[in-house]
TrEMBL record:
One of its GO terms (molecular function) is cytokine receptor activity. Keywords: Membrane, Signal, Transmembrane, Transmembrane helix. This is Interferon gamma receptor 1-like. Residues 9-102 form the Fibronectin type-III domain. The chain crosses the membrane at residues 227-251. The keyword Transmembrane applies. InterPro entries: FN3_dom (IPR003961), FN3_sf (IPR036116), Ig-like_fold (IPR013783), Type-II_Cytokine-TF_Rcpt (IPR050650). Residues 327-365 are annotated as: Disordered. It comes from Gymnodraco acuticeps.
């Protein structure tokens, strides 16, 4: 066979090998670095078998490194590249077997969390949890959690966070303030004429830029409702009611001495017997003296002694009939039913010996 016959075939095979050696590079390579979360993304046309992506990493003062990504994934998490003391250069290469594409983007991507770095891309941290409160003395209280606690969960000692607070409408800012506490606070002077006060916070933490995403606003100060007037009104009403009640009781006592006590005062005396009931329960025995002459001790109970009948002649105790004979002669008896000392007894009734006590009839009830 002539060598010229094989020339087209050899040329075709050589062309195929050249085409296969040219691997398509990734397109639209972007980097998102924020809050120490870094993601590298890219696009690619047709995902052929054996295709892999290599992430090329270079840093200042460190040897080059790489990270591999298997399709169909077209992104890589590079959050470990967050040291603010370093600057990073990153790119992506498509690899098929022994062949690989050009790196994309051609100039690579330079980034760093160091706020004063020379890199084109500077990453920062957000300060989302800012609380703003308007005070009564023309000031505003700005409070937020130390940003290190948001991104570094475990820390024995908080680093210094130096920040400034800017009032948006006044275009003024406070002097730099250092915070090493878990909660940072700052009093900001604001204009009372403004209806709405908004601030932004920006600071430096371990050479990293920390700032609020957007202005944080607070409503104007409103005076709290005063309860002093209500207290005075209630106090005056109570005092007036007490004075009126006392005057009413005095008036009733003077106009009607027998006025009963109000019902709501009777609960204290509930269950206690009245004075009249106590008097009715007192029992004084009736005492009848044995002589017409009352003793001195018996003068106090004369009101409880039943007076003797005039027709009854009483003798003194301890005096015999003979000694009392002269006394009985001087007493004038007005009736026949007086004391006869046994002269009118029946013949068959036995005579009793004279006694110094008076004989009384038996009363059958």
């Amino acid at each position: 066979m002539d060598l010229a016959t094989f020339n087209p075939v050899i040329l075709f095979l050589a062309l195929v090998q050249v085409v296969l050696a040219l691997v398509e590079p990734p397109a639209n390579v972007t980097l998102e670095c924020h809050n120490m979360h870094n993601v590298l993304r890219w696009d690619y046309g047709q995902l052929v078998p054996g295709l892999r992506f290599r992430v090329n990493i270079r840093s200042m003062g460190s040897p080059p490194s790489e990270s591999w990504v298997e399709p169909p994934a077209k992104q890589a998490d590079v959050s470990f590249l967050s040291d603010p003391r370093n600057e990073y250069i990153i790119s992506v290469t498509a690899v098929i077997g022994q062949n690989e594409s050009n790196s994309a983007p051609p100039d690579s991507i330079e980034f760093s969390y160091f706020q004063d770095a020379l890199s084109e891309r500077k990453c920062s941290l957000d300060l989302p949890s800012v609380n703003v409160t308007t005070l009564h003395d023309g000031k505003m209280l700005v409070r937020f959690v130390h940003p290190w606690l948001l991104y570094k969960k475990k820390s024995k000692k908080l680093p210094v966070f130096r920040y400034m607070v800017e009032v948006v409408h006044q275009k003024t800012h406070t002097d730099p303030t250092d915070c090493e506490e878990s909660v940072c606070e700052e009093n900001v002077i604001v204009a009372a004429s403004q209806e709405k006060h908004c601030v932004t916070v920006e600071g430096e933490l371990e050479k990293m830029l920390v700032k609020t995403l957007r202005p944080v606003c607070a409503a104007p100060y409103e005076e709290p409702p005063s309860y002093l007037v209500h207290v005075w009104v209630v106090s005056v009403l109570l005092i007036s009611s007490a004075v009126a009640f006392v005057l009413f009781m005095v008036y009733r006592k003077k106009t009607n001495a027998a006025t009963s006590i109000p019902k709501f005062f009777k609960f204290a005396a509930k269950g206690m017997p009245e004075r009249r009931e106590l008097q009715e329960k007192i029992f004084v025995p009736e005492v009848v003296p044995c002589s017409p002459t009352l003793m001195d001790e018996e003068k106090d109970v004369t009101s409880f002694i039943t007076p003797c009948d005039d027709s009854v002649l009483r003798m003194r105790c301890g005096v015999s009939a003979e000694a009392d004979k002269g006394l009985s002669d001087s007493v004038e008896v007005t009736t026949d039913e007086g004391y006869t000392q046994g002269r009118d007894l029946e013949p068959d009734e036995p005579l009793e010996a004279p006694s110094g006590y008076e004989k009384r009839a038996v009363v059958v009830s």
